[in-house]
Amino acid sequence: MQVPAPSRGSYHSMEDPATQSNYLQIATEHVALDWTLDFDSQLISGSATHHLLVKEDDVKEVIFDTSELDVSDAKVEGKSVSFDLKPKHEVMGSALHVCLPSGLKSGQYVDVTVEYKTTKDCTALQWLDKAQTQGKNFPFLFSQCQPIYARAIVPVQDSPSVKVKYSAKVTSVLPVLLSAIRQSPPSNGPAHDGKVIGKDLVTYTYNQPVPIPSYLIAIAAGNVRYRGFPQFEDKQWTSGIWAEPELIDRAYWEFSEDTAKFLAAEEKIVTPYKFGVYDLLMLPPSFPYGGMENACLTFLTPTLLAGDRSLVDVVVHELTHSWFGNGVTHAHASHFWLNEGWTTYIERVLLEVLYTPAHRDFSYIIGAKALKKSLTDFENEPKYQRLVIDFAPGEDPDNAFSSIPYEKGANLILHLERVLGGLEVFLPYVRNYVETFIGKNITTQEWKDHLYGYWAKHGGAEKIKALDSVDWNAWLSGEGLKLPVEMKYNLTLAQQAYALAAQWDAARSTADVSQLKFTPADLEGFNSNQIIVFLERLQSYAQLPLAHVRHLSALYGLGATPNAEIRFRFYEVALTDTGSESAKVFASEAVNWIVGEGGIEKGTDREGMVVGRMKFCRPVFRAVCQVDRELARKVWEGKKEAFHPVARRLIEKDLGLGH
Ligand SMILES: [Zn+2]
């Protein structure tokens, strides 16, 4: 068996279909940002200076991506030059063409400065009102640039194929955080350099010395405080958490124990952490997502504050991106699975290292449900069921966003691990893969070529034969509702949860619940994922009678738990049949939980704290609307201002209030 020649399939494609920039002719190596934040008019104004490497002789212009930016000037080496902002492409935005001096030679550098400000239509920035924060005293700003929104805050060659270092100087009346290392004022010094928060201007300086893809450029600003986690003496990096003062104690408690420990464990599996700082930022309750792996600064939803450290595993996923995605980066959207598939695979290896092999497999079982749903959702667009998606130029990568790159990708790598001889044999390859490509960006074909190259050297014919047994076409380009291989997982942890659910299902015929033998001890020894699987399994049966749902809630404390993942699944059980008595009774409790007014929240620091993460608030509003439309709309009207604009738009659509 010999190494097959690389096939030039669609998954070889190098050119990024979602950018209009000419990054193959000339590319940014460093960008210096100089920004001022204006919370009154909700704009960023300033400049970006690109240090560009010429890659092609006589290149005439540099083309940047922009989206809804107001460009006032462009300079080459400090002198104003002519520029042209082209009409807007619906997905890719407006290409900004800046003229370059003639006679540039490959290998030369040129500095180009663009002066601009953002506009009201900026898709990357969310300016929260005071009411949308936990403290309710100051506004808050945060960005989301993945996949192609960096161009909405800075003119940039907005492709993961262009990795840039950056420095930034940002002036603001509120503390500023960036996806980089703080230079001044010090993170652990007095908040806002001891000046008056919300009033005095302070200039924050940051530096990102490691080249990163543009989608990891990130900013947040608000009334935030820092608390460092205990340091490992033998580590060069530091780790800590940022949050509003109202959340900092709980946030610190939740994450201080495990974050640095996880990062250190990951270093043993892969390679040393390269970014110097690994901080978490707890966003206000209206943050509509779970997490985002911005360099040096993972953004997190406060729904992870379970009060028992049970949801801290989400951090494992985000910090794993430091190697897969932030370190080894996909060349462009078609190869996005290299980021998420690898991250999900390694995240689960870490679960095996930290807990047991059964925990690792249990995560695949939970993921299988999400994968099935995504594959079904795309039944009419089978192209998005593929692992490697052949995007047309200008096609929106967000259209394809789903669990598929995560779950199908992780299963492909797990399958490779198994055919190549197991985890022990496989991990040295993983390290070699990271060492080979860290700091670079790659296509699926480059990944596969390296894979074959590595195993040809470490194992020879036998391993190549194993690799050739993989149905590559089915894994990379296959469509349909099934994985190419029926994957087997260790079911130990799932079976306990399934068994308990079956007992509850069987108990429905006993009308007097006081006769039932369930006790709080049933859940002893269950981790939160097992409780989730137990509740998801219960939903697969017919609606339990009201008395049983009440009993379930009272016995296991499900309607009062601060663990949002569990409480959400409990309401799904209570509202399984929206015409049932149970649904009528629990609809109000469920929707009041979402807006922070549930009985259990009263008088606690959770009072008024919305559950703005879309994973929870949208399905609850949808279900409650089916049970009692008036109730859903009334609660919504009273609280909608506290939700993020993206969530607001989608919930209004769900409630039939859209225009
Ligand atoms: Zn991810």
TrEMBL record:
Binds 1 zinc ion per subunit. It is found in: Cytoplasm. GO terms for biological process: proteolysis. A peptide binds at residues 144-146, 288-293, 613-615. GO terms for cellular component: cytosol. It comes from the Eukaryota. Keywords: Cytoplasm, Hydrolase, Metal-binding, Metalloprotease, Protease, Zinc. The active site is at 318 (proton acceptor), 406 (proton donor). Its main location: cytoplasm. The keyword Metal-binding applies. Zn(2+) binds at residues 317, 321, 340. GO terms for molecular function: aminopeptidase activity; epoxide hydrolase activity; metallopeptidase activity; zinc ion binding. Residues 492-655 form the Peptidase M1 leukotriene A4 hydrolase/aminopeptidase C-terminal domain. Its cofactor is Zn(2+). Belongs to the peptidase M1 family. This is Peptidase M1 leukotriene A4 hydrolase/aminopeptidase C-terminal domain-containing protein.
